[in-house]
Amino acid sequence: MSTASDRQPTVRLPRQPLPTHDVITPPPSETPSAGRGRRRLLIGALTVVTLAAGLGGVAVYALHGDIPRGTTVLGTDVGGLTRAEAADTIRTRLAADPRTTTAVDIQVEGRGATLRPADIGLTVDVDATVDNAAAGRPFFGGHAVAPVVSVDAGLLDAALTEAVGDVGTAMTAPAVTFSGLTPKAVHPEPGRGLDPQTTADTVTAGWLTGAPIIVPLVETHAVTTAADVDRLVTTVAEPAVAAPITITSDAGTLTVPPAAIARSLVLTADQTGLITPRIDAGRLRAAVKTRLAKIEVAARDATFTFASGKPRIVAGKDGRGLDLVAMAPALLAAAQSSDARTVQGTLTAAAPATGAADLQKLGVTEKVSTFTTKFPGGLSSSRSQNIITAAKHVRGALVLPGKTFSLNKFTGERSYAQGYKDAPVIVGGHLQPGVGGGVSQFTTTLFNATYYAGLQDVEHKPHSYYFDRYPAVIESTIFWPDLDFRFKNDSPHGVLIDTAWTSSSITVSVWSTKVWDKVTTEWSDRRNITSPSTITKPDGPNCISTSGLIGFTQDAWRLFHKDGKVAKREKFTWKYDPEPRFVCSPPD
């Protein structure tokens, strides 16, 4: 019969031999079997206590700090460290690893790209790596934790695409286009190309291996399917151009014809191949521009004018227009309807693109330079009238900081329709009548005004022959469309051009804020002087007689003065041909 002691749980371990000098004798009151049971119970209890103590010691050892013992990252032991200590240890390890800063070799379809980790946001996420290490196996055996690598997928995709260029085959994007009023379905076709997420996963996985990274191409499919395109044709495109759309407003009614709807209805896909139907307000405005003019009032920008010889700002004025951007969703809904094709429009105030405050900020406050040249013949001559016509056209021209002014672009072709007349021009080295003759004198005057304002010369060409009404070297001709005069406003302020004239002179002034204290010119002596020859030409309307001019070469230096010193010098050189002495002789 068993005793209570015999029924207690025990831990069975291999029996150990007792020491030879230790003799255990059971008490007389106990039977031998009862003694043996108590002895087993005592040994088992001692063993459990000993084992528990041992395991507790192991646990204390293994769990010391936040990171389990035996944990490594990139071969560096971080076991037993706190999170902060582990993070510092990993960062020190990474700083000493050349792979973290060396350019990464990436291969795509046999094309190589070498990208710096910093340029694509490629880095080890130390905090995430420490989190993984802290969650590792807590007891025996080594545990290697892979570093958590992150990359900016957008930067990587852009840099890789720029480096390797077009690879794979482009996806045929779905679309619905119009041929007149007939919609045409463009079905998508899959392509092969770089996928930003696949590229990012491949690069992060292969970065610290030290081997070239092979990025695969993936098959790309449009989000919008061929069936979707066909449905868009029947549910959107065809109904849209079936009838006009009417826009009502307080200022009148606007009818949008089907052709205008076809121009403004956008059924093209984005980069993912998704078609989202929409009305393009800009295209719609262009398509019904003439009709809109009956409803809208254009805003008027603030401008400069001249009063008493000085610039004055004339405030702009608000306009009134239909807010087609806000109306676009309602217009799209109307385009898909068979009967509800009327949209209520809202007229909103349209502010000027340039207000008085914008002009005030430009710093057009003082006359920076002015230049005058003399012309013969009085205001009755065709040549003088051409000079004044150009001056009237250019007066008030505003050149914003960083912008380039082109005289040809500003005036357009100088033709009879603009009021220009025939006057002598140089063509192929000969003087002959031509429309706009004399505008070169205005060009020279404008060139010198901008020259002495210290503005950047972009394009000018002196005359073939030297005329003493101009300063040598620093003068300019012009001829549509081949010869132009251009300057750049390289100052931080606006540049406003003013012109004035008398019966014998033309003046151009530049208004802005001074950048240089003054601008002056130094000339070299003339050299390589040549005498004119005499050429006899048949008398007639194309023959203009001249007395001839010498030819020479000369230099001119533009000096920019600042704080009492010459801060910059700019050299101009020109070689003048001798103008022949043309004699108009009656034919034999």
Overview of this protein structure:
Among the domains are: 46 residues; 128 residues, Ubiquitin-like (UB roll), CATH 3.10.20; 223 residues, no CATH class. Helices cover 27% and strands 28% of the residues. A four-stranded antiparallel beta sheet has the order 22-30-29-23. A hairpin with a 3-residue loop joins strand 29 and strand 30. Helix 2 crosses helix 3 and helix 4 packs across helix 5. The N and C termini lie far apart (163 Å).
List the helices and strands and how they pair.
Elements: H1 32-62, E1 71-73, E2 76-77, H2 83-95, E3 104-108, E4 111-115, E5 123-124, H3 126-134, E6 143-145, E7 149-150, H4 153-164, E8 175-179, E9 182-186, E10 191-193, H5 196-206, E11 213-214, E12 218-220, H6 226-240, E13 245-249, E14 252-256, H7 258-264, E15 265-266, E16 278-279, H8 281-287, H9 289-292, E17 303-307, E18 310-314, E19 319-322, H10 324-335, E20 342-344, E21 347-350, H11 356-360, E22 366-374, H12 382-394, E23 398-399, E24 404-406, H13 407-411, E25 422-427, E26 430-435, H14 439-452, E27 456-459, E28 486-488, E29 495-501, E30 505-512, E31 518-523, E32 527-530, E33 534-538, E34 551-562, E35 565-576, E36 581-585
Parallel strand pairs: 1-6, 3-11, 13-20, 33-36
Antiparallel strand pairs: 1-2, 3-4, 5-7, 8-9, 10-12, 13-14, 15-16, 17-18, 19-21, 22-30, 23-29, 24-28, 25-26, 27-28, 29-30, 31-34, 32-34, 34-35
